[in-house]
Amino acid sequence: MSSEKYIPYQGEDYRDDRMYVMNIATAKKDNKNCWNLATYRNILSLSATRNDFFDTKKELLDYIREVEPRVPLISNNGQPLEIPNHINEEDIDGIWNHFSEWLKERDLFSAVKEVSHVPYYMDKRGYKNVIFHATHEIINI
What we know:
By secondary structure, the protein is an alpha+beta fold.
């Protein structure tokens, strides 16, 4: 992954085949330690699209294993990775293993690897081997 390589698709420049990527962070919400999963459009600027909080790391990882294989792919016209017929659509482990192999074949990584996607100006690779910290605050205007 480098800032010189991108995939043009529907008027945006994507960092790789995935239309969205996620980062894990430690977090604090309501003065309680928890976990955060931030989802970003996988465009050069990594624009944030959602933030989810989890009480335990197990809940966080289970959620990632269920949703990350469903990420829309540019190479599949915005549809998720096709799962072979021999894998049952309810077999989360089988789907996860298939998706993990797909990532590995493309030299990509999952959020479960605890590597954070970052803008290229922060790291020329587009990622850092770090977990950030998030704080949930409600701002009254």
